[in-house]
């Protein structure tokens, strides 16, 4: 491995991946529509300008130029939207694959979500469709599915506790993982080479949403009644079954409690 292109390198996962590659002294370039700015809280080394290429996956603009001299591509750009009636995931992945076929890159790593093959949710179906495009294309690949990030669960709980009474679908299951654990695995895959398979990665603990919510309130000093919401619809029932989790693939990561304590001031 000589050089890595991180597409979507300015997002939550992207900045963590960039930090990891920087710490491991792996040469990389960020591909995104906007340039990462010095002074960002997520940037480890403030003294250097990060190598950056303007890439618009929605149109394919800039991809050919960004792929020059690249051996490995980490595809992190993601959105639950549509482009011309098609899912963002499908259009952007198709554009990337077309450009990769005309490049000398040797490995495509795609970041996906645990349960995309089971959970009946349009965004998950789009991620699965993107996975299938990659698998059918013939380009050497690795697909990493991860469980939900701590930040996402925190966002959900804050929404549920917005009113004086918290309405919580108590039995939904989650296996939260810290974003840095995912970026470490993506970096490992970049160095290991194509796996030609789908890999799962989950956090160290499996919780119900009720348990996570009560711990959130305890750490933040909040006290309010929780009213259970019935499990209705295929999406909620799928999360109740834990189809978004992979306890057999749990890894060492900051726990939910550690995350809350570490970010208590920022999250309050």
From TrEMBL:
InterPro entries registered for this protein in UniProt: ComplexI_NDUFA9_subunit (IPR051207), NAD(P)-bd_dom (IPR016040), NAD(P)-bd_dom_sf (IPR036291)
Highest taxon, organism lineage: Bacteria
Gene Ontology molecular function, alphabetical: protein-containing complex binding
Domain NAD(P)-binding positions: 8-151
Pfam families in the record: NAD_binding_10
Name of this chain's protein: NAD(P)H-binding protein
UniProt organism field: Spirosoma profusum
């Amino acid at each position: 491995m000589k050089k890595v292109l991180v597409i979507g390198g300015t997002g939550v996962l992207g900045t963590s991946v960039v930090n990891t590659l920087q710490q491991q002294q792996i040469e990389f370039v960020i591909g995104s529509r906007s340039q990462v700015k010095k002074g960002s809280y997520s940037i480890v080394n403030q003294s250097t300008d990060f190598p950056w290429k303007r890439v618009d996956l929605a149109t394919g603009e800039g991809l050919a130029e960004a792929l020059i001299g690249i051996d490995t591509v980490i595809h992190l750009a993601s959105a639950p939207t549509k482009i011309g009636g098609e899912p963002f995931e499908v259009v952007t992945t198709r554009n990337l694959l077309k450009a990769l076929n005309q490049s000398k890159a040797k490995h495509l790593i795609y970041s996906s979500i645990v349960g995309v093959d089971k959970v009946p949710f349009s965004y998950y179906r789009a991620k699965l469709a993107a996975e299938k495009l990659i698998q059918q294309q013939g380009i050497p690949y690795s697909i990493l599915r991860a469980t939900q990030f701590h930040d996402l669960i925190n966002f959900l709980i804050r929404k549920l506790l917005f009113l004086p009474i918290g309405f919580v679908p108590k039995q939904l299951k989650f296996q939260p993982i810290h974003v840095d654990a995912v970026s470490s695995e993506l970096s490992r895959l970049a160095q290991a080479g194509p796996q030609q398979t789908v890999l799962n990665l989950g956090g160290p603990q499996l919780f119900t949403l009720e348990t996570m919510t009560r711990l959130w309130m305890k750490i933040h000093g909040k006290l309010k009644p929780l009213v259970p919401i019935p499990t209705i619809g295929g999406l909620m029932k799928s999360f109740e079954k834990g189809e978004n989790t992979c306890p057999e693939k749990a890894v060492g990561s900051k726990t939910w409690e550690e995350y809350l304590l570490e970010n208590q001031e920022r999250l309050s």
